[in-house]
Structure formats: C-alpha cells, structure tokens
Input
Amino acid sequence: MATKDNSSSDARGRFCDILRATGRENIDYVIEDLESWGFFEAPASAQGHGAYKGGLLEHSLNVYDAAMATRRSVIELRPDLEPQLSPDSIAVAALLHDVCKSDFYRLVRRKKRNEIGTYEEVEMYEIHDENFPVGHGEKSVILLLQSGLDLSDEEICAIRWHMGPWNLSRDDEKFYRQAGRQSPLQALIHSADTIASAILERNAAKM
Output
C-alpha cells in the first residue's frame, strides 16, 4: 500500500508552476519550505486515499483540478460570483490546504493478514501528530503564514475549514458557518477536496 510513487518531476513542476503563476510574494520561499518539510514525498493519508509516496502531491493537484472545474460550472450558473472565486485564490487554497500533512505520517512495518489468511510483514503509514499538535486546517494556515505567504481572510477560511462540517465542536460549527457566509471559496475548496479524495482517488473496482 505504501509502494506507489507519484512524486514525479512532471507533477512537482506543474504544482510549482501553478503556484508561481499567482505572482504571490515569497512563493518561492514557500516552495523551498515545502521541500524541506517533505511535502512532495508525503502520502495523503495513512491507509486511505493517496497512501503512498507522493500521494499528497497528487491529491493536492486533484483538488486544484476539481476546484477549477467546479468554478467553471458555478460561474456558468452564477456569473456574479466570478469576482469571489479568483483563480489565484483557488490555486493557493487548493494546492496548499493539506501542507499540514507534510510531517504527519511515518512509514513503518507491520504484520497484516493477506488474502489467504496468513500474516505477512508489509510497509504502511502511521499517523504521528505530536510534532505540532494544533489541529488540521489550522496547522496548514499557521505553516503558510510562518513561511511568509500573505493569505487573504477568504483563503485562510477556505484552508482552515476545507474538511467541512466534520467533528466540529459547538464553537467550531458556529465559526464554520460564519466563515461560509463570507465567501463561496470555502465551500468550493471543501467540495473539491471531497471530489478528489472520495471520487478521483477512489480505488478502481476489481473486475
């Protein structure tokens, strides 16, 4: 499960080109930090979608593609929302929403029952969140701000709440709903993240 490697130079190059095209100040410093954090080699999850080397890079590009496709559909139905869904903001929020996962998983060897019922040693990822235990979306926002990236309020909310209304406390639910009323970018990134992880990165059905 931890053997696939999608950290290709093509994917990395496309990722960096999209970010640089935003013209954001300090974006090259952000890319350097992503490199030092291990972002381009990290998995996207421990045992779910993208649970392999380079899975996080692939997932981030999938979210970007889903977000841009959704943007086109939304603007066709609601042209008035185009100014609130800038391609640059979508690029920043979609590609960088999960930078919190850069040092989140550790490759280990564990015994696992195979298809014929016997145990064999396999490589898999385990979650290790003790390095910077401040939450999921919050961690991404903090890391990006520390890296020198100037984020708008809408981008901060989109990254912070990209997981949507899951496992929210009462205060979190209130803040999530308030943030969603301020800009459609938050809902767009959450929808794109769901499309990418639950549909685009879904395992192909076995024949």
Observations:
- Residues 44 and 56 are 4 Å apart (CA to CA).
- Helices lie at 9-21, 27-37, 55-77, 87-96, 137-146, 153-160, 170-182, 185-200.
- The longest strand covers residues 105-113.
